[in-house]
# Entry
Amino acid sequence: MTKSSLLLTLILFTGCSTSTNHFQTAEKPVENEYGRVVVYRPSSLFGIGYKPPIYIGSTIVGYSVAGTRFNVDVPEGEHTFSISTTSYSTTAALLGGGVAALAVGPRHSKTDPIKFSIKKGEKVCIKSEVVMGVDGSFEFDVVDCDQNEKSMAETELIAYKNFKDKL
# Structure
């Protein structure tokens, strides 16, 4: 085998093993005219497969995935944060002749949004997590970045598409 074919084989095998829907990234500095929103969800087995979309305003900026965090740089000012959830409602009805009908369907809702203000160069941290309950609902809130630094460091930093031009 020649050196060039060995190199090509090595590149092909290493390239295939790293493909994912999102990618791990290095922390980049915040651009001067923006503030940074760090959204994170601690690792937990409860609700691990549930990955609802996260909105800032009406734009989906990422997904709440257990054990991950991501950054969204936003312009200075007031912003609205929310998570869209889907739970399933079940309706039972007794039809004539003792026949029962059962209907299961999705019930879409957005969690009550929170508003926050951000200044140029400032960092705002938002923690999301699944809470115990019948429908596995979400809780999220703005948290102190310094007090939650250890919890955030235990998550994987991932990157999504850049949304700055849509916010």
Notes: The two ends are 53 Å apart (CA to CA). Helices lie at 3-16, 149-153. Residues 131 and 137 are 6 Å apart (CA to CA).
